[in-house]
Specification:
binds adenosine monophosphate; five-stranded antiparallel sheet; alpha+beta; single chain; HIT family, subunit A
Length: 120
C-alpha cells in the first residue's frame, strides 16, 4: 500500500493550504514555494504515487487535472500569454512528493523547457 503524503492531508483539509479548486476528482492549491508568479499544483484526490502507477481507471481524474489547469490559467489571466504544465516522475525529474501532481506555472516568460543540467 502506498504511503500517504502531505497532499492527502491538504485534500482532506486537515492542514492549511490555499485551495483554489476542489471537486470529487481533483484538488488544486498554490505551491508553497512558488517558482513563478502563478504556481499551482493540481492533484488527483486519490493517491497515485508516480506517473508510473497511473492506471486506465485514473484517466478521468487525469483528464480533469488538465481541464482544471486550463480553467485556473484563464482565471489567473495567463491563458493568452501562455504557461507550462509539468509532471515530475521519480529521481531524475526531481519528484519530491509521491502523490502525482501537475505544476501549473506562468505569469512571466519561463525560458527553455529544461534548466541547465546540474551535476548529480
Ligand atoms: P515535485 O518536485 O514535482 O515533487 O514538486 C513538489 C512541490 O510541492 C514543490 O514545488 C513544493 O514546493 C510543493 N509543496 C510541498 N509541500 C507543500 C505544501 N504543504 N503546500 C503546497 N505545496 C507544497
Amino acid at each position: 500500500m502506498a504511503e500517504e503524503t502531505i497532499f492527502s492531508k491538504i485534500i482532506r483539509r486537515e492542514i492549511p493550504a490555499d485551495i483554489l479548486y476542489q471537486d470529487e476528482l481533483v484538488t488544486a492549491f498554490r505551491d508553497i514555494s512558488p517558482q513563478a508568479p502563478t504556481h499551482v499544483l493540481i492533484v488527483p484526490n486519490h493517491l497515485i504515487p508516480t506517473v508510473n502507477d497511473v492506471k486506465a481507471s485514473d484517466e478521468k481524474a487525469l483528464g480533469r487535472m488538465v481541464t482544471v489547469a486550463a480553467k485556473l490559467a484563464e482565471e489567473a489571466g495567463i491563458a493568452k500569454d501562455g504557461y507550462r504544465l509539468i509532471m515530475n516522475c521519480n529521481q531524475h525529474a526531481g519528484q519530491e512528493v509521491f502523490h502525482i501532481h501537475m505544476h501549473l506555472v506562468g505569469g512571466e516568460p519561463l525560458g527553455p523547457l529544461l534548466a541547465k543540467k546540474q551535476s548529480v
